[in-house]
């Protein structure tokens, strides 16, 4: 029987166990030019016993930023700063992928210089507010990308992915979940386009497909993963057809030989979609399962039952840097402080230490 503590070959990257640290937004890029600092080096180094670390979302461009003090991978100084993180993780025998996240309409002009605004598939504002250093701000309507600009954003993902490899990451995860740009192209309430990028299922999945194809061609499919969250309503997303969209998406990506597919379960009733995608995708399948409270050792049976190859854990990794040891012992666990937690357990975490 396969267990969470057995090693796994992730398309050529050897992982010591099947426990992943889920990506969690931290808003701690306090260095010059939104660079990570020594606290980030320490944070990821402490958690290197995970089979795989997936970083917080890293923006591929200035207007890809969605929250205050989040790091980028679009400048030389950002690449150099991340190199300290990857060196620290590798020195302890860990593996680490950079999550490339373009926030799309989830952002605000106060985050950007020179009056720039967020961009998205369509000029549809998200409901709700963004917490900024100036206090809460209502989301505003983003600027709709032109067709040429959509292609340019694909290029931004590629360049950031190349920068990730230069910074020493073992690979990248493309963030197609939780209501950010790739997800905004997939969802009919945020993608109102009538050109090749919107309307039909085939057109709505096109951006996700082309970003993934382009990144895989640039750095290798084996070093490329994709995270999706079928039916996830977070960030004012309304998906009416996840049972159709996601099998179509995975069907287009299956021939690429990706390093992995990462599913975030935000809606417990959609386990059938998870199982269908698991059956459809032949590569490594990472699952961040829907659970009541922090995901703990009770979820490990999902690996033993063959539902997932790797399990991603979020909030417990914050309070328990040695989480694999504690999972094997079935506890005890330090209790995570979820006061500033968003999106449901293990789906994303954000703190603003300077606010």
Question: Helix and strand layout, with pairings?
Answer:
Blueprint: E1 8-10, E2 13-15, E3 19-21, H1 38-46, E4 52-58, H2 76-91, E5 96-100, E6 119-120, E7 129-132, E8 135-138, E9 143-144, H3 147-166, E10 171-176, H4 181-186, H5 201-204, H6 206-219, E11 224-228, H7 242-253, E12 260-264, H8 271-280, E13 284-288, H9 301-304, E14 310-313, H10 315-319, H11 323-328
Parallel strand pairs: 3-4, 3-14, 4-5, 5-10, 6-9, 10-11, 11-12, 12-13, 13-14
Antiparallel strand pairs: 1-2, 7-8
Helix pairs in contact: 1-2, 3-6, 7-8
Form type: globular
Mind describing the biggest β-sheet? 8 strands, parallel, barrel
Question: What's the N-to-C terminus distance?
Answer: 48 Å
SSE string, helices as H and strands as E: EEEHEHEEEEEHEHHHEHEHEHEHH
Helix fraction bin: 25-40%
Structure annotation, total helices: 11
Structural class: alpha/beta
For the secondary structure, the number of strands is 14
Sheet with the most strands: spatial strand order: 3-4-5-10-11-12-13-14
What's the average pLDDT? Answer: 94
Uncertain parts: 340-347
Q: What is the gyration radius calculated from CA atoms?
A: 19 Å
Percent strand equals 15-25%
């Amino acid at each position: 029987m396969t267990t969470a503590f057995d090693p796994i070959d992730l398309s050529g990257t050897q992982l010591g166990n099947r426990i992943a640290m889920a990506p969690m937004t931290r808003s701690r890029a306090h260095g010059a030019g939104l660079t990570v600092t020594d606290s980030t080096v320490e944070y990821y180094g402490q958690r290197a016993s995970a089979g795989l670390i997936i970083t917080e979302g890293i923006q591929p461009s200035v207007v890809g930023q969605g929250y205050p003090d989040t790091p980028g991978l679009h400048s030389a100084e950002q690449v150099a700063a991340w190199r300290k993180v990857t060196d620290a993780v590798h020195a302890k025998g860990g593996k680490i992928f950079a999550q490339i996240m373009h926030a799309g309409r989830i952002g605000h002009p106060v985050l950007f210089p020179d009056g720039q605004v967020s961009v998205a598939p369509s000029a549809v504002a998200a409901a709700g507010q963004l917490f900024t250093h100036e206090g809460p701000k209502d989301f505003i309507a983003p600027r709709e990308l032109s067709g040429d600009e959509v292609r340019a954003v694909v290029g931004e993902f590629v360049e950031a992915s190349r920068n990730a490899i230069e910074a020493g990451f073992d690979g990248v995860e493309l963030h197609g979940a939780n209501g950010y740009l790739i997800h905004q192209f997939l969802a009919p309430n945020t993608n109102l386009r009538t050109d090749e990028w919107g309307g039909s299922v085939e057109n709505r999945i096109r951006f996700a497909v082309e970003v993934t194809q382009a990144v895989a061609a640039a750095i290798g499919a084996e070093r490329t993963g994709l995270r999706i969250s079928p039916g996830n309503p977070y960030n004012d997303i309304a998906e009416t057809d996840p049972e159709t969209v996601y099998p179509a998406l995975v069907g287009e990506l299956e021939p690429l030989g990706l390093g992995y597919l990462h599913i975030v379960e935000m809606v417990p009733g959609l386990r059938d979609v998870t199982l269908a995608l698991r059956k459809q995708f032949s590569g490594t399948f990472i699952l961040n399962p829907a659970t009541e409270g922090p995901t703990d050792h009770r979820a490990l049976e999902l690996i033993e039952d063959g539902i997932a190859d790797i399990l991603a854990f979020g909030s417990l990794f914050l309070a328990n840097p040695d989480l694999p040891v504690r999972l094997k012992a079935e506890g005890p666990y330090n209790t995570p402080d979820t006061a500033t937690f968003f999106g449901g357990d293990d789906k994303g975490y954000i703190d603003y230490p300077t606010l």
